[in-house]
Amino acid sequence: MTSAETPATTPAENEVAELCTELISVDSSNYGDGSGPGERAAAEVVMARLAEVGIEATYIESAPGRGNVITRVEGTDPSLPALLVHGHLDVVPANAADWSVDPFAGEIRDGYIWGRGAVDMKDMDAMMLAVLRQLTRDGRRPRRDLVFAWVADEEAGGVYGAKHLTKHHPELFEGVTESISEVGGYSLEVDPSLRLYLIETAQKGLAWMRLLSDGTAGHGSMLNSDNAVTEIARAVARIGAHEWPITLTPTVRTFLTEVAAAFGIPFDENDPAPVLDKIGPLVRFVGATLSHTTNPTQLDAGYKSNVIPGRASAVVDGRFLPGHEDEFFKTVDELIGPNVRREFVHHDIALETSFDGALVESMIAALKAEDPTARAVPYCMSGGTDNKTFFADLGVRGFGFVPLRLPGDMDFASMFHGVDERVPVEALQFGVRVLDRLLLNY
Ligand SMILES: [Zn+2]
Q1: pLDDT surpassing 60 at residue 123
Q2: Does some domain include residue 153?
Q3: Vertex 384, ends 165 and 405: CA angle to 5°?
Q4: Residue 292 and residue 304: Cα distance in Å, rounded?
Q5: pLDDT value at position 161?
Q6: Ligand 1: centre distance to CA 305 (Å)
Q7: Residues 92 and 233 in one domain
Q8: How large is the average pLDDT for residues 256-279?
Q9: Looking at residue 3, what is its pLDDT?
Q10: How far is CA 119 from the centre of its chain?
Q11: Distance, CA 414 to ligand 1 centroid (Å)?
Q12: Residue 8 has what pLDDT?
């Protein structure tokens, strides 16, 4: 690509694409069962690039090959709380046969960096590196302490990454009260004079529930009014068919109000569909944040055609809204009925923080300085990140903020864990400029 297509001025902007391709070309696929290559090689890239400019970092291996890198930049004002900037080094696996390019080559084509992790989230890993390297080379110091963490295992629950660090090395995060990381900060173009930047301020909670029913076992040819399979099937049908009412949390209400205003259409709380239509494919991120959801995902019972089993079970993937957990479980219990019990396969909190304060103002200011058409809006994620799962336990207020100015026609949501995952080089350069402003001035 020519320099005319990607005007780059600072060293950080010049090198961010190269750092990103270097990280992508290290396969750090996380299969979730420990069989993958681990994050050590990717962590070594980070360590080497930090060492190159004289930054000392701590390397922590939570298990063989599961590498984490952390470093702290001392601020000029020790009275200010520290900010954590974190990214995960692992990626979900990629089936090369499905791709137009080698997913682990880090190829740059048509102004895009292609490869697994290009948006989730070696883009941010590289932006963090580029900004930190430049701050250091220039001898500029931020106002507050900045803790940079490149962690393992986010894609499989964070046990070898954020969980390990927060549990065994909490001192590394001393003084940290806020954090930024995935999944937010990207743009949604309304028209050439207005781009919305979606900053994640809330995440739904997670309740993977096993439903169990116990009945009377017996021969399939006989009368049986206490059949565990029948009972579990009824419960699964009720919970799967349940239409959860629209419940707008403060974040989602603000988001919909702002989007409606941006597109110049009315917002009817009882019928948000016209507003959601306006956000195109991003509805994948937002669509499931207007209500609880409960999707049955597994069924298990019996072992022979003519034997009624004494027990049947099912698994339901439940996601509840922040602030509405009790009401969610109350309804779930009504739906499954008195003859079915439930236990957790996995249970995680919901999070919501307000869209205000100095960090939010700094993020908005940094965006506007680099894109005068920028308007920041908070949004809620239907999934979760390390921000929720672990750093919230340390009392850290987390935001999804990976600033990317995207082309108006880009289907960004499909890039996450998607085939042909890619990110515009210019978006990374934009992100570097925004992060540089934010991290230096906040
Ligand atoms: Zn991610």
Answers
A1: yes
A2: yes
A3: 100
A4: 36
A5: 95
A6: 44
A7: no
A8: 94
A9: 43
A10: 11
A11: 13
A12: 53
